[in-house]
C-alpha cells in the first residue's frame, strides 16, 4: 500500500486489488459487504497510523476513487460543529469548510467512526498495552528467538499463527515491560533480530490463519525444540 501524508489532517493512500486479495478480501465484497469493507478500511487505517502516526480521534471525511488496478482513498480528520448541524473540514490555509450533515454523511460517520478496529503490526490493545506482530519466513527463526528470550517470558504474552507459508507472532508487553518504554524498545529490538516487520493484522490472522500456540508460544517452542547454532 502506498501512503502519502498531505498535511496534519489529511492522508492519501493507494491500495491495489492484488494487495486487497492478499489481505484476505474479495474485490466484489468490499463494494457489496458493508462489514467486510469496514474491516478492510480499518486495517488500512491501522497501517496508516503505524507508518504516519495518523491517529484517529474524531470523525473522518472519506473520499474513495475506484481505479483500474486499485483504490485511491483520501481521509481527512474532521469535527462536528457545536450545534451538530455541520461537519467542519480543515483546509491547508488553516481555515475550515462547513458541510451540512445530511443523512448520508451521518450514516458514514456512524459506521466509520467508533467501531472496533483490528490490531495493526504495532498498536495498543484494549487494555492499553503495547502489542506487536512480526513475521518469520522459517520456523527455525521462531525456535532461535524462543531460546534468546529465555528468562523474559513474564514480560510478554505471545501467540503464534501460520498464514500463507509464513509464521506470525503476536506479542503483548506485560509485567515489567508494560510501563517501561525503554524496556519495550529493548525487547522489540531483540525480536527483530530474528523476525521481520509486517502489515498483517491480528484480525486477519484470527480469521484466516491457523493458530499454532494460543499463549506462551516462546516458552512452549523452547521446551519442545532445541536451539541450533547460527541462522540460515
Helix/strand/pairing category: alpha+beta
Q: What is the total tally of β strands?
A: 13
> How much is the radius of gyration in Å?
20 Å
Q: Estimate the mean pLDDT confidence.
A: 75
Q: Helical segment tally?
A: 8
From the spread of the alpha carbons, the general shape counts as: globular
Give the SSE string: EEHHHEEEEEHEEHEEHEHEH
Low-confidence stretches: 100-127
Strand content: 25-35%
End-to-end Cα distance, whole Å, is 29 Å
> What portion of residues is helical?
25-40%
> How would you sum up the major sheet?
6 strands, antiparallel
Which key terms come to mind for this protein?
six-stranded antiparallel sheet, 30% strand, 232 residues, 32% helix, 8 helices, four-stranded antiparallel sheet, alpha+beta
Walk me through the structure:
The protein is an alpha+beta fold and 232 residues long. It contains eight helices and 13 strands. The protein has helices at residues 17-22, 29-32, 34-52, 103-112, 139-148, 181-191, 202-208, 217-224, and strands spanning 2-5, 10-16, 60-66, 70-77, 79-80, 86-90, 96-100, 122-124, 130-136, 156-163, 166-173, 196-197, 210-213. Strands 8, 9, 10, 11, 12 and 13 form a six-stranded antiparallel beta sheet that branches. A hairpin with a 5-residue loop joins β8 and β9 (130-136). α5 (139-148) crosses α8 (217-224). The longest helix has 19 residues, at 34-52. It is globular.
Amino acid at each position: 500500500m502506498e501512503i502519502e501524508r498531505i498535511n496534519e489532517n489529511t492522508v492519501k493512500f493507494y491500495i491495489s486489488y492484488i494487495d486487497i486479495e492478499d489481505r484476505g478480501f474479495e474485490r466484489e465484497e468490499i463494494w457489496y459487504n458493508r462489514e467486510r469493507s469496514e474491516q478492510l478500511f480499518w486495517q488500512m487505517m491501522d497501517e496508516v497510523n503505524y507508518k504516519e502516526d495518523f491517529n484517529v480521534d474524531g470523525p473522518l471525511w472519506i473520499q474513495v476513487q475506484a481505479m483500474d488496478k486499485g483504490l485511491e482513498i483520501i481521509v481527512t480528520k474532521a469535527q462536528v460543529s457545536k450545534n451538530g448541524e455541520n461537519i467542519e473540514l480543515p483546509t491547508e490555509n488553516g481555515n475550515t469548510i462547513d458541510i451540512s450533515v445530511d443523512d448520508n454523511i451521518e450514516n458514514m460517520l456512524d459506521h466509520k467512526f467508533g467501531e472496533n478496529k483490528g490490531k495493526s503490526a504495532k498498536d495498543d490493545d484494549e487494555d492499553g498495552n503495547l502489542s506487536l506482530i512480526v513475521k518469520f519466513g522459517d520456523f527455525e527463526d521462531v525456535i532461535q528467538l524462543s531460546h534468546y528470550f529465555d528468562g523474559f517470558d513474564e514480560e510478554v504474552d505471545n501467540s503464534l499463527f501460520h498464514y500463507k507459508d509464513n509464521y506470525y507472532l503476536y506479542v503483548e508487553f506485560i509485567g515489567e515491560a508494560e510501563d517501561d518504554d525503554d524496556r519495550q524498545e529493548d525487547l522489540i529490538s531483540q525480536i527483530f533480530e530474528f523476525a521481520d516487520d509486517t502489515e498483517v493484522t491480528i484480525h486477519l490472522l484470527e480469521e484466516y490463519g491457523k493458530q499454532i500456540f494460543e499463549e506462551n508460544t516462546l516458552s512452549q517452542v523452547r521446551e519442545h525444540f532445541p536451539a541450533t547454532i547460527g541462522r540460515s
